[in-house]
Amino acid sequence: MKPASKPNKVPGRSLVCEDLPALIGKDVRRTNDFEERVIGLIKASIAVKQKLFQDAVLVSMMAEVSRVIVDALQQGNKLFLYGNGGSAADAQHIAAEFVGRFAFDRPALAALALSVNTSCVTAIGNDYGFDLVFSRQLEALGRKGDVAIGISTSGNSQNVLCGMSTSKKLGIHTIAFTGHSGGKIRDVVDHCLCAPSNETPRIQECHILMGHIISELVEKTIFHEKSGISGS
Q1: What local confidence, expressed as pLDDT, does residue 11 receive?
Q2: How much is the pTM?
Q3: HSE (side-chain half, CA atoms, 13 Å) at 37
Q4: Burial code of 50-71, b = ≥16 C-beta within 10 A, e = fewer?
Q5: What number is the average pLDDT over the span 67-89?
Q6: Which of 12, 27, 28, 171 is exposed most, by the fewest CB atoms within 10 A?
Q7: Mean pLDDT of the chain, nearest integer
Q8: Fold that domain 55-223 belongs to in CATH
Q9: Residue 125 CB contacts under 8 Å (≥ 6 apart), including other chains
């Protein structure tokens, strides 16, 4: 009788039951490693926020910036926000808190992120250069008494610096959100809120926290509402 032929083997070692404990153990170790990293990153974020509230000068400046924005909006002026990349997203996020709502229903507040009009940004960038994408819009829309918040983790973004220069010429109050050093922008704005970190992710996490704090203070001051924060 002719012996039965052996099945064709797929190249490489076949998986057998004996391999499973090793593979499962490897996945568990990888998961544990990821969990440790997650915990470490959360701790790093908390550490920066602890530095934030322990900095009396920075806390005082956030309060002052909130007052400046309250005064401007109550007088019929506008708030402009701008930045690049993640900072552009933060600018849009914070602007939405003013135009929509932060904690409760109330009339809209005048705020505009200058990165959202892609036709405007690309036309200015193409015709005049990327350094002027914010300053040109401020030239068109800004008026004396308005407030401009420029967001740059390094403090050295050239188009943000140009926007601040134009704002100064127009009599717009200038505020910067930056990292620990403040960069070049620190010396050209009225108020510079320097997140106490040199790491971009930690700086950005502080920026959105500062934006939320300012949004809540402005909203509650103007509309005198004491209700809790609602979900959306």
Answers
A1: 53
A2: 0.85
A3: 6
A4: ebbeeeeebeebbeebbebbbe
A5: 98
A6: 12
A7: 91
A8: Rossmann fold (3.40.50)
A9: 132, 133
The structure tokens 């505020």 sit at 175
175 has a pLDDT exceeding 70: yes
d(CA 204, CA 91): 11
| Interval 108-167: pLDDT, tens | 999 999 999 999 999 999 999 999 999 999 999 999 999 999 999 999 999 999 999 999
Are 143 and 77 in contact by the 8 Å Cβ rule? The answer is yes
Note the pLDDT of residue 230.
55
Q: What is the pLDDT of residues 177-202, one digit of tens each?
A: 999 999 999 999 999 999 999 999 99
DSSP letters for 157-192: -HHHHHHHHHHHHHT-EEEEEE-TT-TGGGGTSSEE
* CB of 79 closer than 8 Å to CB of 149: yes
Q: How far apart are CA 123 and CA 1, in angstroms?
A: 83
Q: CB-based burial of residue 46 (10 Å sphere; 0-12 exposed, 13-18 middle, 19+ buried)?
A: exposed
CA 151 to chain centre: 8
Whole-number Å distance between alpha carbons of 183 and 164: 13
